[in-house]
Design goal:
alpha+beta; Aminopeptidase; six-stranded mixed sheet; 3 helices; 32% strand; globular
Length: 146
């Protein structure tokens, strides 16, 4: 039996090629709608004495914003301001790229406090994500308005 017209195909193992179609189409739509994002990756690594990556920050800049997607500080480096140093380094790079703001999200109470110490303020909350916690969305202005 042939399928006539569009249909939905649910999978938990999407191919990279199929995902690329969605990414390329959405990127094209957004560029037509609001202009090109100028998306660029940014990473700041914590390396041990042998040069091995043991933690760090990964994200990207786009449309004038820095988004920190992942930030991990190994337990042995916590409480020493390492998260702040990672964020400051990424934020400085974002400013050189012309970014005016930064955002991040977390459901870790410890990370929430660390981000707030760095000047991030909550702009949204998703309760019970995961169950028993809230996911917080935070932002920070990187350059002052003139």
């Amino acid at each position: 039996m042939s399928v006539s017209g569009p249909h939905l195909d649910l999978t938990d193992e999407p191919s990279q090629e199929d995902l690329a179609v969605i990414s390329e189409r959405l990127t094209g739509f957004n560029a037509d709608d609001v202009g090109p994002s100028g998306r660029r990756s940014v990473a700041v690594f914590i390396r041990d004495a042998e040069g091995k990556v043991v933690g760090g920050l990964s994200g990207y800049t786009a449309w004038g914003w820095l988004f920190t997607q992942w930030l991990f500080v190994p337990p042995e480096f916590r409480g020493q301001g390492m998260a702040g140093r990672l964020l400051e380094t990424a934020e400085a790079e974002a400013i050189t790229r012309g970014c005016h703001g930064a955002w991040i999200d977390t459901f870790s109470p410890q990370a929430l406090r660390a981000y707030q110490r760095q000047g991030y303020v909550i702009f949204g909350e998703l309760p019970e994500f995961p169950i028993g916690r809230s996911r917080f969305f935070l932002q920070k202005r990187l350059i002052s308005e003139s």
